Amino acid sequence: MQGTKVTDYLNFREYLRDSFEWQKANDPGFSQKRIQIEIGAASSGFLSNVLAGRKNLMPNQSARLSRLLNLDRVESAYFENLVLFTQARTVEEKNEFFNRLMTMQSARLKQLEEHSLTLFSKWYYVAIREVLGIIDWRGDDNALAKALQPEIKPSEAHEAIEVLTQLGLVRREETGRAVPCDPAISTGDELFSRHLAHFQMTTLDLAKQALMGVPPEERDISVLTMGLSPDTFRLVKHELQYFRKRLAKIAVDETCSNRVYQVNLQLFPITKELLTRGGHK
Q1: How many CB atoms lie within 10 A of CB 86?
Q2: 32-66 pLDDT per residue, tens
Q3: In DSSP terms, which residues pair with 110 in a beta bridge?
Q4: CA spacing 20 to 30 A to 231: which of 30, 43, 52, 157?
Q5: At a CB cut-off of 8 Å and minimum separation 6, what does 187 contact?
Q6: Beta partners for 184?
Q7: Which residues partner with 179 through β-bridges?
Q8: Phi-psi region of 160 (alpha: psi -120 to 50; beta: other; left: phi over 0)
Q9: Which residues, 6 or more positions from 275, have their beta carbon under 8 angstroms from its beta carbon?
Q10: How distant, in Å, are the alpha carbons of 16, 217, 266, 267 from that of 213?
Q11: Of 73, 44, 56, nearest to 16 (Cα)?
Q12: Does the pLDDT value for residue 192 go beyond 70?
């Protein structure tokens, strides 16, 4: 619809705020008061309270609102599940509605096939693929090698281009410029492979180098140690997955990038299961 696309969102309140802003700027007859009347809201400040998180939408209000916003059948189903996801109170509900959203979402992340996981056999394959989305590169292996931090050999840069091309992740335009075939790619949440494990270990080493070699104003490296129950652990893991997808969307929407960054998110136990004061694990 108009200037906002509901399937780009993972919080219905954010979507409504952006959608209402677009409506106010482009439709002289738009008013939140009219929408409140149409969805059967009792108080005059109902929508403001919904946007602020002080009130929730009922299922019938979600359905009416999706019609008022001129959402098609797929968008309406997504919006109504988005409301349920945002307002869910338990880990189980969050996971259920989150999985529904991921199934319906017109995601712009290309899901990698297992044979393409060679991409992760060298850290600089991934980095160079991102670099090609920024610079106008037409064959200077030396310049490409020097663009990375830490620098690699020109022969490694050349090898990376060949591998990326064979995997169908990079293509040559008629002008001769090499560009990524898709704006963003993903392995999904739980996929594990030898190449992916090696890549993750290598990026941890890069993070250690950055801690000592990159000025603090050019990086953000922090740690958090906390005690969790199994249910809360699942909730935190879900929140990290949600956050990673939000970052991926921000990166896809970026139009003026001039540097490639690595973001590592880790959550792992540093103790065995312990007995609580009540005598339970």
Answers
A1: 19
A2: 777 888 888 777 788 888 888 998 998 888 888 88
A3: 185
A4: 52
A5: 111, 112, 117, 196
A6: 109
A7: 171
A8: alpha
A9: 281
A10: 43, 12, 21, 24
A11: 56
A12: no
Pair 127, 260: CB distance under 8 Å: yes
Distance CA(237)–CA(189), nearest Å, equals 10
Q: Residue 234: exposed, middle, or buried by beta-carbon count in 10 A (0-12, 13-18, 19+)?
A: middle
pLDDT of residue 259: 95
Question: The tokens of 73 are what?
Answer: 């059948």
For β-strands 178-180 and 170-172, DSSP reports them as antiparallel
CA dihedral 165, 195, 223, 249 (to 10 degrees): 40
pLDDT tens profile 127-142 = 999 999 999 999 999 9
- Taking the whole predicted model, whether its pTM rises above 0.70 is answered as no
Structure tokens at 259: 């540097």
CA–CA distance, 49 with 220 (Å, rounded to integer): 34
Q: Which two tokens stand for residue 83?
A: 């409301």
Closest by CA to 264, choosing from 101, 129, 115, 123, is 123
248 within 8 A of 102, measured Cβ to Cβ: no
d(C-alpha 97, C-alpha 12), whole Å: 13
Question: In the block, which residue shows the tokens 């919080």?
Answer: 11
Place of tokens 């017109």: 106
Q: Is-contact 267 239, C-beta < 8 A?
A: no
Question: Residue 36's pLDDT is what?
Answer: 80
Strands (DSSP E) contained in 14-153 are: 109-111
